Amino acid sequence: MDDTEQRQRAWRKTFVTLWIGCFMTGLGFSMTMPFLSLFIESLQNYSRIELNIYSGVAFAVTFLAQAIISPYWGSLADRKGRRLMCLRASGVMAFTIFAVGLAQNVWVIIVLRAIQGFFSGYINNATALMASETTKNKSGSVMANMMTANVTGNLLGPLFGGILANTFGYRIPFYITGCVMGLVFIMTMLNVEEHFTPIPTQKMQKISTIFKQVKNVKLIWLMFMTTLIIQSSLMSISPIISLLVKELMHNQGNISFVSGVVAAMPGFGTLLIASRLGHKMDEIGPQRVLVFGLLAATVFFIPMYLVSSPWSLAFWRFLLGMANAALLPAVQTVLTLEVPREAFGRIFSYNQSFQAAGGVIGPLLGSVIAGAFDYQEVFLVTAGLVFINFLIMGIFQLKQSTVKA
């Protein structure tokens, strides 16, 4: 077997392992998060606004911690490698998620989720690792395929979580997820190979120097802002989706299972179209795909304001999932193509910080709007945010076309 074939086999083994790791991470996350508000509700008798706020804080604190710490982890990744970061994330998440299942009050949950946020980041580091190991002409399809791992996990997680929560209670999904993340740690340690040359601290370029080397710095910052807005819009309803389903079902029926189905529907849409859009990004460029995705997401958010049953909400979330396939993978592909490989860790970590900030803003914004008005008002606000992003991205594209002409 020659060196080229050996490297290709090692690449496949790494890709498959990280794909499974991202799948399990998404599976575990989505097994627990749609039911977090119901779990909190079961701990104590809270008022409607208290429950909304506590759910939003418990959901958002993980992303706040991520936003604060991600630049440090990105710098460490560029010095020590992304494989180590994947091990760090999966190991700590195994402990904290399992411990949430043992919590007896909401403040313990909030503290544990904050710790989880400070040490999480498996999917982003796995994506950065594959970006550094993949040739640029295949970046779009590889980034899209990596997204299908998380999406498939997010698709199946709420279904499994709904069945488990309904049968055994809300704590069991947290116990199982903790064990799953322990398995991810072991798989990553044994199977992932990274061709990485450590960069001594004294030789690392400052992030300001790296930005000067990038030809289109404005595009990079626009991608950061786009990541923040996309994540804010997608996460705005997440902490309270089970409460919305409960309201639409008039507090009758198998609420946990239906909540799981509704939470999973975007995954079906994304999984259906992600691979095709990945190849399309390689053909026509990720920016065009991103503009299309932003417009489609805006259109699909608006009807959710008018839904009167959980099944119509599930339908529109399915279509939203198809638009999702053109959003974050396109952003990651743009970053992969525009940024020097030796700076992937830091640039992807900055993008993760913006994504985490969106994970803070979205749930808190959604919880406040739902508490002050109604759950479905959240969809109008998120549609407005995504449409503003579409306009900004469209104007940027037009200016780029004018300059090239």
TrEMBL record:
Keywords: Cell membrane, Membrane, Transmembrane, Transmembrane helix, Transport. The chain crosses the membrane at residues 16-40, 52-73, 85-103, 142-166, 172-192, 219-245, 257-277, 289-308, 314-335, 356-373, 379-398. PROSITE patterns: MFS (PS50850). This is MFS transporter. It is a multi-pass membrane protein. The lineage of its organism: Bacteria, Bacillati, Bacillota, Bacilli, Lactobacillales. Residues 14-401 form the Major facilitator superfamily (MFS) profile domain. Its main location: membrane. InterPro entries: MFS, MFS_dom, MFS_trans_sf. It comes from Periweissella beninensis. It is found in: Cell membrane. SUPFAM superfamilies: MFS general substrate transporter (SSF103473). Gene3D superfamilies: MFS general substrate transporter like domains.
